[in-house]
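We modelled each protein-ligand pair independently. The example shown here corresponds to the 2-oxoglutaric acid entry; the chain sequence is given first, followed by the ligand as SMILES.
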Amino acid sequence: MNERLVATKSPAKNPTRAEHAASMSAYIAAGEKLAAKTGNRGPVRLDGNGNLHPEILAAFRDKGFYVFEGVIDAQELDVLRAEANNMIERAPVRKGAKVDARGRPALGLDHAREPYTFIKPLSDPWGGTKLLGGRHPSQMTQPVPDGDVPDEVPYLMRDMCQTMPAGLRLYGHPQLLAIAEAINGADFVPFNDAIFVKQPGLGGAVAWHQDGVTHWQSPNWDPGIHGFNFQVQLYPSTPANGLWVVPATHKLGRIDIKQRIADNGGDERLPDAIPLICAPGDVTIVNRQMLHGSFANTSADLRVSLTFGFHRRASVLGQGGALSVERGDVYDEQRIFERAAVIAVAIDARAQQFPDETPYHYQPFAGLEDDYRWNDETFERVIRDYSSKDLAI
Ligand SMILES: O=C(O)CCC(=O)C(=O)O
């Protein structure tokens, strides 16, 4: 038997919030120890040419994740928090409503796609369903929330580059884009973005899964073919509210997740997993082929993770709609160019706000910078409803 679970009782089928939190404590303690041993964290280190330090790249390629500490400074973090909180507060009071909880027009009414996903408090909306390509085969424990709670809470919020000016500027962050280039090449392309909201005592679980759905059988399959995601943490990301990963699983191909859980006695607390523990302003990268997930947030701590990913161009070109993208969509040169233009505008939006920072040079838009300055015209042409051009694989 795995020694990490000896001291831990299996969670009851529908534990109370407090029972669930208690059932996690030994697992969390063991996960913290394993995470400390695993390492793969520290500040962003670039070499003299502005490239990600090869040691970090090698560590990421080996374990499939890295935690960058202290990337976003306190001032930028404050603005991001205020704007993300505004998005939470301005959510429709319930699914489909036109107003927020205070009767103001809800945010997102003019978006092509509803930017919010709501769930029942502490639920796992995807586990054990066919949603999102059926990639979450096993449902997590869904504890019973305390007392009087809303029927639905925001789980995901999309379109941060449209609704949050600081979110757009973050998308043009020179260090983050240098990391994307190191991993996916200078002609890297975007994937999508979503803000995971895990309110204390309410936030839902994300069942164990691997993200990619397109290239598992590809003759060119390799551990990096489905790209990676950033998560920018606005609040502490703890073992109780945060993302857990099973290191190095990005190299294994498609994993039989149901079997892994069965082999663990049906217990979702996978023994080799580690929590990505972050302070506010830390940024994680996670290979999208990693086995990862998060538990219902029965803790007292809010987590808000701005999540956005990037791909290799070759992984996307010629592919088509997957996950939340319309099935008939084709990722041709034009589609990729239009979605990638968000990066070009974001770089300029950031340069306008932070004139002392050296902007990132995005090779696919070299020479086109003047057509992609941040202004009202590019908001309409490039940013409005950009997520309907996402490049999911
Ligand atoms: O942050 C989370 O809880 C889940 C994130 C996730 O599953 C993802 O980024 O694919």
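Residues 196, 206, 211, 229, 243, 292, 294, 305, 307 surround 2-oxoglutaric acid (CB under 6 Å).
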